[in-house]
Recover the amino acids of this structure.
């Protein structure tokens, strides 16, 4: 219910906000366009009606799953989003996986041996990747790996393979090469966060009674860390990563525009530069919906990982 | 005869604490050096990059160390319009720092007021304010700032406004938390017992005790603001291109990166990186000293 209210407020804010900007008519009209021709364009785009009427038309359409037509492409905005979404999701998931695969072991190590030089290097790495602006990392990666070394391409998605009707690039060698740099760029911040969270969790959990107990019982260290500790530190990590995943999709805006990755983020920047209002609004509504859905998903995952939440809810 | 017990003042204790960690000292000196360089940019920069009379388009894209037509040596090279990179970076720093400081300060003031009101009014005021804060924090900062700039257009004032909008909620939440903890303490109880006015209690007794925490949050937020401004400028949404900040300089250099002219993008980026890292280290250290219980 509250989620619905948030959605409603956001549609109002976004719609009115975006509709105060500029005048898209002049973008479409050629220079020799007369007033009559201008009026035709205005009527065609639905801009001649008062703003609040435009909003109600928009809201009515929204409830039917129609987010308006893109000014520049002349096709439904929602279709454009669906078309571009797989590219963004592929990038975001690849970044998430990379962050976990690399960050988790680093964090575990740093938690187990907080004083070792390697741990300090890991923490320094995490500090720096936290601080550096994402776009600059992207530039440096392009400079090193594609301009200087010429190993990896810097632009586009490469060869695509169709899986279940969705085009993906991680199944071809060329696609993987194209995926490498944007993924690394996008995952660094998340990786830094995983390292920190894991380390903090490790240090807390390692002092807990049940870990001492497990050790006293002669359970091998590998199993203590791999099962008993891991189970408990995963909860905060999943929560934070889940919330961050929305942020990753937002930051994909930056990564995508650097690497010309044809996802929704690049689409947004292009739409902003030509003031394609319906497309901007559609993207924002889409992001809001996605956020609300993500939060729901985190709650469900949470109860799967932490039985206490389920028991608590049942008892109430 | 009893010897007077020399008790170190809180400030000197704080300074001694701070100086105990070498990385913090280095970070502080780096930050001060950068800030001074930005402040005195017109005096130390070899060229005024905004003055079209001194900039020669014939000097464009010179690599670092090359001499220009006027006989001036460009130690860090020149950009696409023939501007001396060292000068452009010094002037760019001013804008980046100004945006970071101004937005941080305004957000601090706004957030603190909201946080204090929420903590002391309680009830529905608190509930409504905190709901707004939650809503604000649930959206990624970059997205909110991006949208605001789309609506507002370009300009230094506009980007500061956008950054304040995305930052105030952090301050509000933190201040509310600290204020609630403080107002439950005995000395506030005592002040209430003395029938001091609530405005006086809030401003003179609670607020000073919130300051350390606010300082920590402000430092972290300033680093974030500088980074965010650079990102937005890079996307072409932040500042007008005539007076480039560091982010815009990097963006300008991006076009030349593919042809191997690395210095235009890389050098401002290094400065930006050093600046942000040093502010972050400072923030970390401040947090460790001022509120040990916040340690992660």
């Amino acid at each position: 219910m509250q989620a619905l209210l948030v959605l409603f407020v956001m549609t109002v804010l976004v719609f009115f906000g975006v509709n105060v900007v500029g005048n898209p008519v002049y973008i479409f009209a050629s220079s020799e366009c007369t007033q009559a021709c201008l009026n035709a364009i205005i009527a065609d785009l639905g801009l001649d009606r008062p703003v609040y009427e435009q909003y109600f038309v928009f809201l009515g359409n929204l409830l039917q799953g129609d987010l308006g037509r893109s000014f520049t492409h002349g096709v439904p905005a929602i279709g454009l989003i669906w078309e571009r979404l797989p590219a963004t999701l592929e990038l975001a998931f690849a970044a998430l996986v990379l962050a976990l695969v690399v960050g988790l072991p680093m964090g575990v190590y740093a938690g187990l041996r907080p004083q070792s030089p390697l741990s300090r290097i890991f923490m320094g790495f995490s500090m720096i990747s936290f601080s550096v602006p994402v776009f600059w990392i992207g530039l440096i990666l392009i400079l090193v790996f594609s301009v200087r070394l010429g190993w990896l391409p810097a632009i586009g998605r490469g060869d695509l393979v169709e899986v279940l009707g969705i085009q993906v690039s991680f199944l071809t060698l060329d696609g993987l090469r194209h995926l490498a740099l944007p993924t690394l760029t996008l995952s660094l911040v998340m990786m830094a966060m995983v390292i920190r969270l894991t380390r903090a969790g490790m240090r807390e959990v390692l002092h807990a009674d049940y870990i001492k107990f497990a050790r006293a019982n002669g359970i091998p260290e590998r199993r203590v860390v791999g099962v008993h500790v891991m189970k408990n530190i995963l909860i905060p990590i999943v929560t934070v990563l889940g919330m961050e995943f929305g942020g990753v999709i937002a930051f994909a805006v930056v990564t995508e525009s650097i690497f010309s990755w044809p996802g929704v983020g690049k689409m947004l920047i292009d739409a902003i530069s030509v003031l394609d209002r319906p497309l901007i609004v559609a993207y924002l509504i889409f992001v809001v919906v996605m956020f609300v859905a993500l939060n729901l998903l985190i709650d469900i995952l949470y109860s799967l990982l932490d039985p206490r939440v389920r028991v608590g809810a049942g008892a109430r | 005869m009893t010897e007077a017990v020399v008790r170190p003042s809180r400030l000197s204790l704080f300074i001694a604490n701070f100086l105990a960690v070498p990385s913090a000292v280095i970070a502080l000196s780096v930050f001060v050096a950068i800030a001074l360089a930005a402040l005195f940019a017109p005096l130390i920069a070899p060229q005024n990059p905004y003055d079209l009379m001194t900039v020669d388009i014939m000097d464009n894209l010179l690599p670092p160390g090359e001499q220009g037509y006027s006989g001036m040596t460009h130690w860090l090279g020149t950009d696409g319009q023939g501007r001396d990179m060292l000068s452009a970076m010094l002037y760019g720093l001013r804008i980046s720092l100004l945006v970071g400081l101004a937005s941080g300060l305004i957000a601090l003031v706004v957030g603190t007021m909201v946080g204090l009101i929420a903590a002391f009014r309680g009830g529905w005021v608190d509930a409504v304010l905190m709901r707004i804060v939650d809503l604000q924090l649930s959206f990624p900062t970059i997205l909110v700032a991006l949208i605001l700039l789309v609506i507002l257009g370009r300009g230094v004032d506009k980007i500061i406004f956008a950054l304040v909008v995305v930052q105030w909620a952090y301050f509000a939440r933190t201040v509310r938390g600290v204020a609630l903890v403080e107002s439950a303490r005995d000395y506030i109880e005592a002040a209430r017992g003395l029938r001091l006015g609530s405005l006086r209690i809030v401003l003179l007794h609670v607020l000073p005790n919130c300051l350390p925490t606010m300082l920590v949050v402000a430092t972290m937020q300033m680093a974030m603001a500088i980074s965010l401004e650079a990102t937005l400028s890079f996307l072409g949404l932040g500042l007008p291109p005539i007076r480039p900040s560091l982010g815009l300089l990097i963006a300008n250099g991006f076009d030349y990166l593919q042809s191997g002219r690395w210095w235009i993008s890389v050098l401002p980026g290094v400065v930006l990186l050093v600046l942000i890292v040093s502010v972050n280290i400072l923030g970390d250290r401040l947090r460790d000293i001022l509120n040990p219980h916040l340690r992660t």
Observations:
- The CA atoms of residues 79 and 205 of chain A lie 47 Å apart.
- The first strand of chain A starts at residue 161 and ends at 163.
- The mean pLDDT of chain A is 73.
